[in-house]
Amino acid sequence: DHGRWRALRSPIGDYFPAYYECMALISYLDGSLDRIIQIKLLSFLFDIVAAGIAFRLVGALTQDNVTKWVAPFCVLAGPTVIVNGAIWGQCDIVYTTFLLLTVFAFVIDNDALAMLAFGFALSFKLQSIFLCPFLLAMLLQKRIRLKALVLLPLGWLFSIVPPLLAGGSAWAWLGAPLKQSGEISALSVNVGNIWVFGKLLHVSQTAGTILGAVLTMCVGIAIGVFGSRFRQTKSIVVLASLSLICIPYVMPRVHDRYFMPAELLLCLLACVDLAFALPAGLLLTGSLISYACYFQAAYRHWAMGPAFLMNTAALFLVVMRAYHLRTDATQCA
């Protein structure tokens, strides 16, 4: 309605510009595809890309050919992936794909690719910061060279070019995600994290947001320091999973879709280590319980308790597994 590319002159939503640029390109399919299908097409395409990365990631962790071919279907047949993209038309698979690529890059010891992929993840969604504690650990391990850090902002810089060419402002787009956090009117929205108890404990949104930000920062630093000894290939992926599940668990003002990167990575870990099958299943179940609130709002009053228990159990199992891996690494050293 506003000229496709010309509409990028000013923020038209609460995402970074990369998503809207993809939508602008897809909008040229008007007349060939229904607009609802156009919106979902981006998710479909990244489902396939994520499945390819899953194949390569699991392939780097195991030599079993059967296992490698199971990995793509953890993405393509993932229940939350199907609900997120095919049903809702949401785009969480896009930044999740780049986060999977970031983890894979560290597995193959390519820090340049890792920084480039993470930069593109950030150019789509700010929720990519869930992986920051993992990146801190990689920095402490000196697996990220200083010259590789130069590639980090390229994704954002690349995505801001079309709005600038259209006469827009980079600063206006930079502040777009702040609108999203402002639209979340509760400390927890249909998600089983620790802030489901905020209302019961009469914690104000302002106090909870400040306390949660401090808690999230402390937990993130702790994960980074804790993971500084994770050097084996599989343990790196475990650390990334811990980062992706722990941050949305302690962060306030999040919603039901924020556990998606952790769900997929745990499913891929389960392909090579069945010890992760249970936490993956628990986290998926917790998310599906939360998703059900979208379809039936009255369901929320008793659904968040089970979702919280599922997510807590999954987090506990991942923490214990990570602790044992770190202990083994320390003894070997």
List the SSEs and their pairings.
Layout: H1 17-26, H2 35-61, H3 65-76, H4 79-87, H5 92-107, H6 111-124, H7 132-140, H8 154-165, H9 170-174, H10 176-183, E1 188-189, H11 205-226, H12 233-250, E2 254-255, H13 260-272, H14 277-295, H15 300-332
Parallel strand pairs: 1-2
Tell me what the structure shows.
With 333 residues, the protein is mostly helical. Helices cover 68% and strands 1% of the residues. It contains 15 helices and two strands. It has helices at residues 17-26, 35-61, 65-76, 79-87, 92-107, 111-124, 132-140, 154-165, 170-174, 176-183, 205-226, 233-250, 260-272, 277-295, 300-332, and strands at residues 188-189, 254-255. Strands 1-2 form a two-stranded parallel sheet. Helix 2 (35-61) packs parallel to helix 5. 45% of the residues are buried.
